[in-house]
Design goal:
By secondary structure, this protein is mostly beta strands. The chain has one domain: Rieske Iron-sulfur Protein. The chain is 0% helix and 46% strand. It contains no helices and ten strands. The strands form three sheets. Strands 2-3-4-8 form a four-stranded antiparallel β-sheet, with no helix packed on it. Strands 1-10-9 form a three-stranded antiparallel β-sheet, with no helix packed on it. It is globular and about 35 Å long. The N and C termini lie close together (8 Å). Bound molecules: FE2/S2 (inorganic) cluster. The site of FE2/S2 (inorganic) cluster (FES) has 10 residues, from loops.
């Protein structure tokens, strides 16, 4: 059953940056974008590089390995239509980040 799980403090994720967390055995990248916090599967759907090590530009992360890009709001690839990361609902309450998994 999916439920919101506390994953970190909001201050753990720098503005314009990311943090990798593990929730229920899944590695998830949490992003702090100008549009808010978002979470997608950390393992790039191309060849598995960690997207939390990628480069965030607004709400788009570019994988550091081969440059595929993903909209962190939806998980959909910008550079490779059809490729997609799982995306998870996020809420921030009391300075804590919660991801629904
Ligand atoms: S592993 Fe991410 S673009 Fe290749």
């Amino acid at each position: 059953m999916a439920d919101f799980v506390e994953v970190c403090s909001a201050s753990d994720v720098p503005a314009g940056g990311a943090k990798c967390v593990t929730v229920k055995g899944k590695k998830i990248a949490v992003f702090n974008t100008p549009a808010g916090f978002y979470a997608i599967d950390n393992s790039c759907s191309h060849k598995g590089s960690p997207l939390c090590d990628g480069f965030l530009d607004g709400t788009v992360v570019m994988c550091a390995m081969h440059g595929w890009t993903f909209d962190v709001r939806t998980g959909e690839s910008v550079s490779n239509p059809g490729a997609k990361q799982a995306a998870y609902p996020v809420k921030v309450e009391g300075g804590k980040v919660f991801v629904e998994v």
